[in-house]
Q: What sequence folds into this?
């Protein structure tokens, strides 16, 4: 495995561990609690959304086309933090083993009923990076919700902060 693949895998595991720490620390019932600051959504719904992107990427590997638009929205992952963490860990483990240079097409529907779906060339490595950044973005939203709920103690200091920001802050 080359250095770039090791770097992506290591970063994914780091972000996964931050989410695992959060779910282990949250008080009972907090994961699925509807929050005003999230417009009635929950931390669990953001976690489910993170998971769906990785699931869609994995399911697109066999035919070489990833479609992030058509998600399954499995409710269990927004109400059961253990099920979420178990599934996320399995997905990241499986995707980490795959060749990062594997070519992919990403299907996108920019404006339903107005434009035809489009496909863009990509690679597994590029999509893993996209999904990691997407995950960190949603973790930043989760961080706001946790802070609003006085649950800062459930977060690691780097939770929801992009690696580029952490690198900049450490200079």
A:
């Amino acid at each position: 495995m080359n250095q770039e693949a090791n770097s992506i895998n290591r970063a994914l595991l780091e972000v996964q561990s931050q989410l695992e720490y959060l779910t282990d620390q949250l008080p009972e019932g907090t994961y699925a609690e509807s929050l005003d600051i999230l417009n009635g959504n929950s931390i669990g719904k953001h976690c489910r959304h993170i998971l769906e992107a990785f699931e869609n990427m994995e399911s697109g590997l066999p035919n070489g086309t990833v479609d992030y638009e058509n998600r399954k929205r499995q409710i269990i992952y927004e109400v059961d933090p253990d099920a979420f963490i178990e599934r996320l860990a399995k997905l990241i483990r499986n995707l980490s083993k795959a060749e990062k240079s594997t070519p992919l097409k990403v299907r996108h529907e920019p404006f339903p009923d107005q434009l035809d779906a489009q496909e863009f060339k990509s690679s597994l490595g590029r999509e893993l990076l996209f999904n990691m950044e997407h995950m960190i973005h949603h973790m930043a939203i989760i961080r706001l919700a946790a802070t609003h709920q006085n649950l800062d103690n459930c977060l690691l200091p780097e939770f929801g902060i992009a690696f580029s920001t952490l690198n900049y802050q450490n200079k």
